[in-house]
Amino acid sequence: MTLTFDGPIPGSDLPLCSVLRCDAQGAFVVRYEAEGTGRRIERLMCAAHVDAVRAGEAWRWDDEQNVFLMGADRVASGAHMVSGYRFEVRTFETDTTLGSRPIHLYVEVGGADGAHTQDLHLEMSQSIAADLAKTLTLLTTNSELE
Ligand SMILES: [Zn+2]
């Protein structure tokens, strides 16, 4: 997942940087090709954000808002990002709603950039856990064919 840059572009009347909340003038053409889809995104980015990406700052293309998310926006806006997880089955546990041997899922939310991190604890029945596993398998194996 890399961005390629072309620039700096000469001229002083260029549209704005496509990083959310940045109102600096675009200075470089930034390209990102979605893995395996052949779909390409081409936008402008200001010199400061190009420097940040080159220095290794994390970014995310948000297809819905049509912007790059960086810094706190990358971690906080929209959905929670899962950075780690672990499953646990308690053999003797039982629950009137969840049935016997419910699955505990501990999810670590947040990013390496540390804007915020929290842990979620979810409990689910065996059948929900199985459905979740099937769905995640389908999504991850089909995502390259979109
Ligand atoms: Zn910018």
What's the average pLDDT? Answer: 86
The ligands bound in this entry are: zinc ion
Task: Classify the beta-strand content into a percent band.
Answer: 25-35%
Q: Catalogue the unreliable spans.
A: none
**Tell me about the biggest sheet?**
3 strands, antiparallel
Query: What is the number of strand segments?
Result: 10
Distance between the termini: 17 Å
| Sequence of secondary-structure elements | EEEHEEHEEEEEH
Helix content: 10-25%
Arrangement of strands in the largest sheet:
1-2-3
Question: What's the oligomerization state?
Answer: single chain
Shape assignment: elongated
State the secondary-structure class.
alpha+beta
Number of separate helices:
3
Give the tally of structural domains. Answer: 2
Topology:
Layout lengths: L3 E3 L21 E6 L6 E6 L1 H8 L4 E4 L4 E4 L1 H5 L5 E8 L4 E2 L3 E2 L2 E8 L6 E8 L1 H17 L4
Antiparallel strand pairs: 1-2, 2-3, 4-5, 6-9, 7-8, 9-10
The structure holds zinc ion.
The site of zinc ion has 8 residues, from helix 1.
